Amino acid sequence: MTLKTGSNMKSMEQELLCPVCKDIVKQPIVLPCLHSVCLMCASEVLVQSGYPQPELPPEPNSPASTPNTRSPRQMRRPMPKSDRVDRLLRSGSGTYPGRRRKEGPPPLMLFPCAPCGRDVELGERGLAECMRNLTLERIVERYRHTVSLGSVAVMCQFCKPPQALEATKGCADCRASFCNECFKLYHPWGTPRAQHEHVQPTLNFRPKVLTCPEHDQERLQFYCKSCQMLLCSLCKLRRIHAGHKIAPVTQAYQTLKDKITKELNYILSNQDMVLTQITQLENRQTMLAQALESSRQRRAEALANQVTEKRSLLEHAGLMAFTQELLKENDPSSFVHTARITHNRLAQSIESMQRFSLSADPSFRHFQLDVSRELKLLTDLNFIQAPLAPVIDTQRTLAYDQLFLCWRSPQDSTPAWHYSVEFRRRGVVPGGGRLEEVTGTCAVIDRLEMDSVYVLRVRGCNKAGFGEYSEEVYLHTPPAPVLNFYLDSRWGLHADRLVVSKEQRCARSVPGLSLLQAADRALTSCHLTADLLVGDVAITQGRHYWACSVEPGSYLVKVGVGLESKLQEWFHLPQDMASPRYDPDSGHDSGAEDSSDSPPPFSFLTMGMGKIFLPSSANSHHTNANYRESGFTNGNGPSSPTGVTYPLPPRLGVCLDFEKGRVTFYDAHSLRPLWEGPVDCSAPVCPAFCFIGGGALQLQELVANRNANQTPVRRVTIQSRVTKLN
Hints:
Blueprint: H1 2-10, E1 28-30, E2 36-38, H2 39-48, H3 82-91, E3 109-113, E4 118-123, H4 134-147, E5 169-171, E6 176-178, H5 180-186, E7 198-199, E8 220-224, E9 229-232, E10 246-248, H6 249-269, H7 271-311, H8 319-326, H9 332-354, H10 372-380, E11 391-392, E12 398-399, E13 403-408, E14 418-425, E15 433-438, E16 442-445, E17 453-462, E18 465-466, E19 473-476, E20 482-483, E21 498-500, E22 506-509, H11 513-517, E23 530-534, E24 543-550, E25 556-563, H12 564-571, E26 582-583, E27 588-589, E28 602-608, E29 611-615, H13 621-629, E30 639-640, E31 643-647, E32 652-657, E33 662-667, E34 672-678, E35 685-692, E36 695-699, E37 722-723
């Protein structure tokens, strides 16, 4: 273990060198950058930089600092050479103009640290703020003792020469080394000096406790992790350390010691890895040296051959002399036989003279780098592409109180960060709008004109930019403001057959026992079981529009409007309406006692079994013609004297004009008119629905209320509740 320790001490001389004088440090101080440098070297560098001579602390009281007791091997090291100081100053990042010493010290001093390669700020007090590196001093002392193999003994500082004896003890309080006799003489028994701490004799005594350089006699008890410096109790209170992470020095000591121990153990446990890496570096160094030597030989040979060739072109030398002798040949056959090769060589020489270039290239271009693997990786990279054109979902897209646009991305499309929605009114070129950075796959557009056709399209965007636009979709806004209402569950006498949902927007009629009991009368008379529902609002003015959908499997469902008073009378009629003269579609009884000029109190359209029945009247001929032109007939609409049937549209729209007393029914998906007729508007009018047999009906929900969590409480009123297009 001793031999191994001595070997380690001898091999660490590089760690003990001063970066300025390149010799083993003496009286090292720690700079703010945590590098150590000799105190005298640092002072000389500052003086050469133009700063005044700093006040240096006295050298430690040791035999090494006393000329008459210093060993020849421990002679004081000379001052650093001026050329090294000049090189250090030139390598620094700042310039230091000369200053007169009478001007006083500058407020801040900058020291050019060679290991850092930058200027280090010393502070206002300069080197006085830099503490001694006592640990490094002790390591240097052990190193010197190991290298000298104990030949330099520590002599007693109080024995008079030439009878000086070797020191056997050292006093940490007196900071001196003593022999046995001198130690007893200066530390008599029973005196305070007898309590001094005695240590091994040494050439450099270290203080028992580090004290603050700014506050005398204040121990350094704290460590600032932010500034990486030791603090005393007074320095800790300074504003410069406010908010910093400060820990006790004992905690910092244990933490740092554990980290260094862990790192040291890791390196020592991986010595095989270090040796392997050293072997690889040495092999690479050998290969590089061989490659350089081979390249040098090839280039030298090429240059030598070129020099030889050029020298042969000189007069009376080489090729020129041979050619002159060849021209003396008079035999044609012999001349031709020999001159062909010479002619080729002369032609090549002339071309080489005209296009002269060095055979050996001094560059290293022939050391080519194999980048085939990198090129393959770059070729296989799939760079991000812009999103493909979205696909509009026409089943979910609709125009009601607001425009609701829904789309999806194709399966092979790259993901989109956000979407851009463009919309414009058809026929209006300068108008239009845009919704930017839509994060989802649906958008709501408001503030639109009524009874207008809007053109919409969508495109996605990601890191690669915007993609292509989707196909344009056309949406027709309602012809009037949308009326928002709910089904009134308090009306109706047939709760056993009629079920209204909790949200009061859906109703279902389930024929029960009463219809079964009336089946025996169905063959002899026209008995119908009718269940009536009305909306919870009554319209007294303006134009209003609403929409609903009827389940295709329903038997018979009537949708329309009627006078509120007449609807209340209808509820008091018997459940079985036996009179065949009653026609709900005409809105009144067909007897001759009624005047033909008065408008009917009801106006309904009948739907059922996947069909819709459009009554024929003088006011509806043009609408039926438009409906046939729209392609809904296809041979499936048989006509009759009383009307015509067509396929049931997905949604049915109803528009009531109270002032004109007209009601119009639309295909809500395309807003094509289906049928128009009169209705009595002399009193409040309510939306009404009639179920004959089994069936189901769903009111169209407002786009603005799709995210509503609760349904508001509704009441029957005669005031108009209108939701206009924003």
